[in-house]
């Protein structure tokens, strides 16, 4: 219910605040995604070390491209924010948890199970990203008593919606070809 990160001059470390973004869950989810990808390819007799390496490098490239695009958009449009590149990497990496669940359900229940779980996980990551990024992007203007309806704040909200809306698209794009 309380989505705000605790502050004491600087943001509190993740071990002291459950809402602080950290890289542990995204890193473990990325590795698990690669392993589940290998399992999915193995069930279709398409597994090879080269294909597993290709999936890993492709997923990493999309992740880095996403974070770089977010950094560029924030730099050009939103002005100074408290979002660090590590925070954006953590937020972008949370989608791998939903991708793992969707792939496992696709392996167990077929295409219908995959689509149902992917839809649910896409909705939850969309809501999570909007709530989390909105607090980060609009915290500075609220602290400076700048009006919420200003053009810069509207641009920040559009950026928040764009970042959140990209997550379901990337989730689908990185998983749909694995379940044929």
UniProtKB/TrEMBL annotation:
Assigned GO CC terms: COPII-coated ER to Golgi transport vesicle; endoplasmic reticulum membrane; endoplasmic reticulum-Golgi intermediate compartment; Golgi membrane
Location(s) in or outside the cell: Endoplasmic reticulum membrane; Golgi apparatus membrane
Species the sequence originates in: Piaya cayana
Example GO biological process: protein transport
Name of the protein in question: Protein YIF1
Pfam family, one: YIF1
UniProtKB keywords: Endoplasmic reticulum, Golgi apparatus, Membrane, Protein transport, Transmembrane, Transmembrane helix, Transport
Membrane protein topology class: Multi-pass membrane protein
Membrane-spanning parts: 23-42, 54-76, 96-129
Keyword check for Protein transport: yes
Species lineage: Eukaryota, Metazoa, Chordata, Craniata, Vertebrata
Function statement: Has a role in transport between endoplasmic reticulum and Golgi.
Family classification: Belongs to the YIF1 family.
């Amino acid at each position: 219910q309380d989505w705000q990160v605790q502050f004491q001059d600087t943001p509190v470390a993740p071990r002291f605040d459950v809402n602080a973004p950290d890289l542990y869950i995204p890193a473990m989810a990325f590795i698990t995604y690669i392993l589940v990808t290998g399992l999915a390819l193995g069930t279709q007799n398409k597994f090879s070390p080269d294909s597993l390496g290709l999936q890993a490098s492709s997923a990493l490239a999309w992740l880095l491209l996403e974070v770089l695009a977010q950094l560029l958009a924030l730099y050009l449009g939103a002005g100074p924010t408290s979002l660090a590149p590590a925070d954006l990497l953590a937020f972008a990496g949370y989608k791998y948890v939903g991708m793992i669940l969707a792939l496992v359900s696709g392996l167990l229940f077929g295409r219908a199970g995959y689509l149902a779980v992917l839809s649910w996980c896409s909705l939850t990551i969309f809501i999570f990203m909007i709530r989390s990024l909105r607090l980060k992007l609009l915290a500075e203007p609220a602290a400076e008593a700048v009006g919420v309806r200003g053009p810069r704040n509207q641009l920040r909200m559009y950026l928040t919606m764009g970042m959140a809306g990209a997550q379901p698209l990337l989730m689908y794009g990185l998983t749909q070809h694995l379940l044929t």
